[in-house]
Each structure stands twice: as structure tokens, then as C-alpha cells.
Amino acid sequence: xxDRMLAAAISQRKRLIVNWPFAWWPQLQVALQMAASGxxxxxWQVRYRAAHAGPRELGCSAAFCDWLFDPWRNGQGGAMMxxxxxxxxxxxxxxxxxxxxxxxxxxxxxxxxxxxxxGLVVMEYGDAMAVAEGSWSQIGKLSSYQTMIYGKHGTxxxxxxxxxxxxxxSEACPEGAEVEVSPLSxxxxxxxxxxxxxVNDDQPLLSLCDPEHARAAQEILEAGVxxxxxxxxxxxxxxxx
Length: 241
Fold this sequence. Notes:
Elements: H1 2-11, H2 26-37, E1 43-51, H3 55-58, H4 62-68, H5 71-74, H6 79-83, H7 85-95, E2 100-106, E3 118-124, E4 129-135, E5 146-151, E6 154-158, E7 166-169, E8 177-178, H8 191-201, H9 211-230, E9 234-235
Parallel strand pairs: 1-4
Antiparallel strand pairs: 1-5, 2-3, 2-9, 3-4, 5-6, 6-7, 7-8
Helix pairs in contact: 7-9
């Protein structure tokens, strides 16, 4: 589906944008800019954990949960596809496409559903690795929705949501210090403003909204699901079906 959407946009000369919820966090945009600028040196790991107590516990409707917990209806599975996508996207932006993916999935606490309530996707690169974690079992918010980017010359910790801090650690400041993050310009602060501006000026989209990166994240997830199913690592790119 991702390939078809990209092909349709290209053939019709239309702009395609993907709206990831965390794309509009100022501190995450700045962290990715710092990583791309080389401020951290060569990046050797990216890590993201998305976790909560579960869809029902969050108040999702019974009808939605019936669909979400049915792998034949929702297409792929549970927490891995639902929540490892964010880490896969960040890895694709910072490190590109991995050479090999390993997925681990299991029902660790919710025995009454037919899909995994926890998933882990590990991405291997020649000189780096990335980890995407997804959980429907976590009590409390500690560690949830945090981004970690590790480079040879520094480490970034990105706290979640608008208002979260960006912390930078280096050899000179191993305990970490807060990076000042300025308010976003209007065209980078929301989906509608960003899309309209980019349609008008024909400039590149934010990396977090670029459909090519979203397509790469989808391939990583597909590989993770396959890997978990066969209990073996899966090489990328995936063969065309």
C-alpha cells in the first residue's frame, strides 16, 4: 500500500504527507536537526519506546478494541505494529534502511487477546543499531515516548510532547544539560500549516513527514512481524510480492 501511495502521488504530481503525532514536538525536530548536522558525530544507536497500559485501559471503544485485537481484521497484529512504528521511523530518518531486522513479540500480561501486547524490533546497520519498543502493558509513564540518540561525541534525550525538554550530554557535560528550544515557526508547528506552505513553496517536507521515510518505516515493521513469526532475523530490502 505504501508503494502504491507513493507511485500515485508521483504519477499525479501531487504532494503526499504523513502526519505522525510526534512530528510537531519542537524538541524532536531540533534533536533530528542536531543529529543531521553532525553535532553528535557518527550515530551508533537510536532508541524509542512507545508504551501505555493498553487500548482498553486508555478508554478505547469496545468496537475499536475488537478490531484491534483481531489480526485477521487489522492486517498485522498488536503492539508491535501499533507502537514500534515510531522507533522504526526515527531509525529510518537518522540511520537509513537497516540491513537486517529482528522482531520479538509476545502476550506477556494480556492473555485474553489474540495479538501480542509487547513487541521489540531491532535494526542492524553496518556500524550502528536501532531499537523500537512497543508495549500495551506498562503501568505509569516512566520511559514512555522518550527518544534516545547516541553518537560518538554526544547523547540526546528527547522528552515527549510539546513542552518536553531536549537534553544533551557530552564528555564535557556527562550529566547532561538542557538545550534551548525555540518555538516553532507556524509552518512547522502543525500538519495543515506545514502542508499548505510546502505545496505553495514546493520545498521539501519535514523529515518526520516525508512519505519516503514512512515507507521505510513500514518495511522495517513488516520485517519485524515476519521475523517474530519465524523466530529468525529478516534481511532488507524485503522481496517484492
